[in-house]
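I'll show an entry:

:::
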Amino acid sequence: MKLEIITPDKTIFEGEAELVQLPGIDGSFEILNNHAPLISALDTGKIKVKTAGVESFYEINGGVIEVLDNKVLILAQ
């Protein structure tokens, strides 16, 4: 799936991802390929991104996620 993580200052990640784990306001959740459409608010915490077996972590202070047609857009603070 295509993933973009954007902050007000810059794009911190853009590329293909196998898994995205996020801090939702009601608890942590994961997004995998072919996930159903989704819009959700994010809480303060870490985003975990797995690409080709390598895990990366990005610290955020909240935001919003949109999932549609194997494209994931995260607008983070």
Remarks:
- The mean pLDDT is 95.
- The CA atoms of residues 22 and 66 lie 12 Å apart.
- The domain at 2-76 is CATH 2.60.15.10 (ATP Synthase; domain 1).
- The chain is about 0% helix and 75% strand.
